[in-house]
Structure formats: structure tokens, C-alpha cells
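User: Please predict the structure of the protein below. I'd like the answer in C-alpha cell form so I can feed it into my own downstream comparison script.

Assistant: Understood. Taking the following sequence of 283 residues as input:
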Amino acid sequence: MSVYVLPEGGVHQRVRLPKVLFRRLVNCSLALSTLSPRLNDTDVKVVVIPEQGSHTTDVFGALTNALRKANICFRVLDDPVEAALSSFPLLRVEENKINSRSTTDVGCLNLNALRIDHGMVPSTDKRQVFPVKILPHLLLGNYETASDADLLERNGARYIINVTSNLPNAFEDNPSYHYLRISVDDNSSHNLSQYFPEAIAFIDAAARAGDACLVHCLAGISRSVTVCLAYLMAKNKWSLEDAYDLVLRRNASIAPNFHFMGQLTEYERHLGVRVSGTGVTFK
């Protein structure tokens, strides 16, 4: 399913969801803002272009129902995708504009601006929920968390992964803390997956030492979440969907960008995880 969001006077945006989110859309548990932040504006005009595939009917029905409920104006194009792109070449995503390192099925235009935003969950003050205990030895946090010595001490966090290129390591001069910096910005130009093995080894080192590892970025919702998801997938042989569900249960305020979700989808393939659809029972 290809979705072209066409705001008046603006640039089109093509959106394709990773498989982990297709099921949420069909189950009506995916906010329209997940597809594009522009869908928060009821004045946008949406063109839905169905593609061929066995899953298309369910996704098409769920999407159009959601658009109707939100009173968003949309039209469905009956022509095949290639015919539509031939008539409207500006809608085509050129190969050289997509990160050549990515072979996932989520490579699209302007994905750095998109978030997985769970609008169904009431917003909370993130300062009240961080750090989030993903596992006994794995904590998710933001920069505030990483800069609070008392908070780190109370949670036994002696190992800290700083997933930013510019934020300082607050207690780097203190020998009690161990740091790993992953210098990545929150956009579509950075390959976070290349750091997964190093991050996983660092988190395991914290567990062996009897300590906890805090993974943080600026806000604690995208880069740091991506690292935590990769760890859960690698250590438990979980699918991306199962890992995502666990982190979502621990903290609903997560929003990894679509580019990182694409890298996690590729990582799932690399791990050889079989997506059974049965899910995992979490405590």
C-alpha cells in the first residue's frame, strides 16, 4: 500500500509502513499521525494508491475507515502504481535519493520527519517516567536521566550508552561510570545498526558486573529506543514486533523514526528471526 499525502501548497510525502505496523493499522490501534504528522491537519488532501498484494485489501479498508473517521478528504486512484507514476513523475522516489545501504521495504521519501506516535495513549511528563526499566539490567532514559547522579545511583546504572553526537557524558571523569558513545543524529542519514554489536556487548558487560546500563539520547524516544529494541531482539531471538511490544508496555512514549525502524527490520532478517505472529507473553 502506497500512501501519498498531498497538503495544499506543500510537497508530497510518500509513506510505506513496516510490517510491524501493518497489523496495528488493520487492528485500528495505529494513530493516523503515525502515517504522517500532516494527517493531524484535517485540511490535507490524501491520495491512496493501492498496490498488488494479498495484504492490500485489509490495509486499504483499515486506512480508508480511519481517514473517514478523522473527516480527512481522500481519493482512491484506480490506476496501477506504475501508470500513476508515469502520469505524475514527481511522485516517484528516485533510487539515488534512498540510502543505498538499506534493503528494507520501508525506504521512502522524507522518513526522517516521521515518528511512530501512539496517539491512543495519553501523554505524560517524561521526567516522571524515566528511567524506564526494560530489563533488570537495561534502562531507557533521556539526557536529564543521564545527568542526574542520584537517579543513576538509585537505579544502579554504572554503564551508560550515550546515543548522541553532541551531548556530553555528564560523569565521564568519575571512574565509577563506564561510557559508550554512539555518535548518531536522529535523521535518515545515519546508520545506527552498525553499532548494534558494540552496544549489545556493552550492555552484557553491565549485566556481568551486576550493574544496570542506561541507554539514552536527547529525549529518550528514538535513538535510545532503537538500541534497546536491537538488544531485546538479539538476546531473546525476538521479532521486532515482540520487542517493540515489550518496550511499549514499559513506556508508551516511544517514537523511533522510520529509518531506524527500517534498520531494525533488516536486523530482524539478519538474526533469522521467524515472525510467527503468535507473540510473546510479557510480565
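That's the full C-alpha cell string. The chain is about 35% helix and 15% strand.
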